[in-house]
Specification:
mainly alpha, Butyryl-CoA Dehydrogenase, subunit A, domain 3, 78% helix
Amino acid sequence: MEFPLISQSNILKKIILLISLLSTVTANAENGDIDLFSEACRRTENTELCFSLLKHDNRTSKATTLHDIGVGTLSMAIEQSNLSVKLLRNSLGKKSLAAKDRPPYVKCRQCYTTALAKLSKAQTQFRDNKFPFARKNVENAKSAANACEGLRSPPPGLKTAIEASKIMLSATYILMQG
């Protein structure tokens, strides 16, 4: 099919130009994600894990602003903290856990339970644009992961959950600092 006013070579040039523009926009969007993730993760204890968690989670992978990533990381922190509480409860229910090792597990679970209440409050405050209050609650929740450092030989799943929640709590706090 021929177009009377537009040559086929002009159409081909326009298609190539369009494809070039689209690939540039896509590359910029991907680099934008990397920049946003870098901003959120660079001051955490494990930049690579933070970056991986943000890149592979739907709540953050499509984020276009630091605020969106903040909402996502807060949600991820709540999820990881919930998982930590469940895994701690399971560990405490096992008879193989020595009596001398129980107190740190109990303390860790209590800290995460308190952290969940603070994170839930922070999530509401964040939605209501009460950022200083949300930031304070996230800061208080961050101590939960630190309370778990005294656990002797935690099961691999628990260790991973605590590490992931620590990263998400740190990233959320960093983002809330502005």
